[in-house]
Automatic annotation (TrEMBL):
First-listed, main subcellular location of the protein, grouped into a coarse class: membrane
Membrane topology value: Multi-pass membrane protein
GO annotation, biological process: xenobiotic detoxification by transmembrane export across the plasma membrane
Source organism (scientific name): Marinobacter nitratireducens
Protein name per the record: Bcr/CflA family efflux transporter
Amino acid sequence: MSHFQLALLLGMTVALGPLALDAYLPAFPDISDALGIPLADVGLTLSAYVSTLGLAQLVGGPLSDRYGRRPILLGGLAIFATAGVMVSLADSLSAMVTWRIVQGIGGAFCAVSVPAIVRDQVNGQEAARLFGLIGLIMFIAPAAAPSLGALMLTLGDWHGIFVLLAGYALFLAVALQTFLFPKLQPRPPATTPVKTLATNYLLVLRHKTTMRFVGIQVLCFSSMLLFITHSSFIYQEWFGLSKSMFSILFAANIALMAVLNLINRPLLRRFSSVALLRVQVSLQFLALVGLVTVVALDSPLWLVAPFIIAAIGWQGAIVPNNMANALEFFPHLGGTAAALLGASQFTIAGGISALSSVFGGGQLLPIVASMLACSAGAVLLALGAPKAVERELALA
């Protein structure tokens, strides 16, 4: 199976997460009216999904190591699709939150299976290139999801968005069963007793090099999530931009992520993913230093926006390199390692983002300073014994 075919199918699968997050954002006012609840309460359905998406990976990862990628991934898609239909039928906030939690479990089983499948098939630099190609395909989802949701609202109402998500999950199940799993290289049979699945996390937690990369992922993702959480405030309230200008500037982040992702791929043929990661994390930090500086000087938007776009854009290159390195040392526990990475990323970054909302005080400087603090931690992890990390990767 070619890398492009594998990346296309896995990228379409990973895209399920952003679609479930972003596609119904335009429908928040409609859901508020339909359920007779305040608009702010609709956000609970988003928080419930994100929290479950992170925590349920801790269960799905070890199960995929024990029982195989196919049953966990296809089971996750079935759970996701069923919950999507039930969300569309919900007539109260409690029902909608409950089924979004169930949907998050299905989404988590899918999300954790994709990096594990990559680790089963390739490793090292090849894994970094494949993660990059998957990410490039996946960038389409967050860019298109709000527009897709708005289109569904013009054709019907908010219920149709979740029916569409359920249909997409079923389509993925058929596509993966037909075109992916028959062509994958078989994994060695798993013999780990179920009772020891949880203890496998200790193997990952004790691996200092892996945990270094997990830390980098968490901190870089936290910096990006801080921006996403406050992006509407930054652009629409602080700088007074229209919805269309906000959409354009938000899309610019995704565009730069895609460009830097493309540039990263040929560089992997000349430089190690660890060396590239070190440079990319440092450049993201410098962009955030510039951002904090211009915000502290009360600069206009035309000076602030380029630093935001540059800082967020580097995620397009950082993520594939870092994920490949984080999973490198666990060829037989790829699901467990991917689960720890995903759960840490969502739960810790979500907590940091929530704290910033509570203590931000409606000011821009604390937000960007928090982004810089997260980036500084990532730089320290990336630079703190890089030669030892590279030697260990070379021996793996």
